[in-house]
UniProtKB/TrEMBL annotation:
It comes from the Bacteria. SUPFAM superfamilies: DNA breaking-rejoining enzymes. The keyword Transport does not apply. GO terms for molecular function: DNA binding. This is Tyr recombinase domain-containing protein. One of its GO terms (biological process) is DNA recombination. It comes from Nonomuraea aridisoli. Keywords: DNA recombination. InterPro entries: DNA_brk_join_enz (IPR011010), Integrase-like_cat_sf (IPR013762). The lineage of its organism: Bacteria, Bacillati, Actinomycetota, Actinomycetes, Streptosporangiales.
Length: 78
């Protein structure tokens, strides 16, 4: 599982510190079982560019959604 707080686009790295496994029919989030599974990897320029674009889109969508919910409650300002 990749979390934004584990991504450093300026340094070009991403930390792999979480995994999702399945326990019965339920997905379970947790730390990797071994130290080898907990690592930081280098990102290439294409990946950094794609992640930056994805983050911008995500932030715009989140901002718009929060703003729309806020206005729908009869408030026109933050």
């Amino acid at each position: 599982m990749l979390r934004w707080k584990d991504v450093d686009l300026n340094a070009g790295t991403a930390g792999m510190h979480w995994q999702i496994t399945q326990l019965g029919w339920e997905p379970v989030q947790g730390r990797p079982k071994t130290e080898a599974g907990d690592r930081t990897i280098a990102l290439d320029e294409d990946t950094i560019t794609a992640l930056r674009a994805h983050r911008r889109r995500t932030e715009k969508t989140l901002t718009r959604t929060v703003s729309e919910r806020y206005k729908s409650r009869g408030r026109d300002r933050w």
